[in-house]
Amino acid sequence: MYCEKCASGKISFPFKAADPQGYYVWRKYEYYNEVATYGGPASSINGQVIRYADVLLMLAESYIKQGKTGAEPLALINQVRKRVNAFQYTSLGASQNDAMTVLMRERQLEFTGEQTRYFDLIRWGIAKQTINATRAAEPGDGKSPFQDKNVLLPIPDVEKNYNPNVAKDIANSWN
User: Fold this and answer.
1) What's the mean per-residue pLDDT of the chain?
2) CA dist 118 to 17, 49, 90, Å?
3) Which of 13, 44, 172, 175 sees the fewest Cβ atoms within 10 Å?
């Protein structure tokens, strides 16, 4: 089991107590500060958790991207929603864009706090406008932190230093 304490039912609420400002802090899967008291997993390997809901929604997305917006993706999305007793959709809309809008919202709601949103935004090609619009609404310097180069991860320096085939194609310090 990924988190024995979570599976044992000893923790019934996924948030820790409110901090002094009154905010709840998201806690999911692992309680690192309590590992010593309950003998949780101790490994240098970062295990990747993939939920069945993620598999269902990725499959629904693949159907929608193929232009199939009927029964197949509808059933998959409704299967995820049924688990939390949410209302069931009767259709995903009149077009492929409508179906993608429904799917994007479902992924955003289902995976809140699970660090998948960024990669969803990258895959959908809307990371720059979404992240910059969110940051523009926040108080601060008003800069747009997400640039076109941020869509790709930088090539590691060790690869650039030791592989001449990679190094010759790099025009700047990013890629």
Assistant:
1) 78
2) 27, 16, 29
3) 44
Name the amino acid, one letter, at 68. K
In the 8-state DSSP scheme, what is residue 68?
-
- Residue labelled with tokens 């180069």: 149
CA atoms within 13 A on the CB side of 74: 14
- C-alpha–C-alpha distance, residues 157 and 174, integer Å: 10
Say how far apart CA 117 and CA 126 lie, in whole Å: 11
Q: What whole-number distance in Å separates Cα of residue 110 and Cα of residue 94?
A: 23
Say if CB 57 and CB 103 are below 8 A apart: yes
pLDDT at residue 142 tops 90: no
φ/ψ region of 150 (left if φ > 0, alpha if ψ in -120 to 50, else beta) reads alpha
Go through 28-47 and write b for each residue having 16 or more CB atoms within 10 A of its CB, e for each that does not: eebbeeeeeeeebeeeeeee
pTM summary value: 0.66
What is the predicted pLDDT for the residue at 55? 96
Q: What are phi and psi of 45, to 5 degrees?
A: -90, 125
Q: Is 164 helix (H, G, I), strand (E, B) or coil?
A: helix
C-alpha 133/C-alpha 144 separation (Å) is: 8
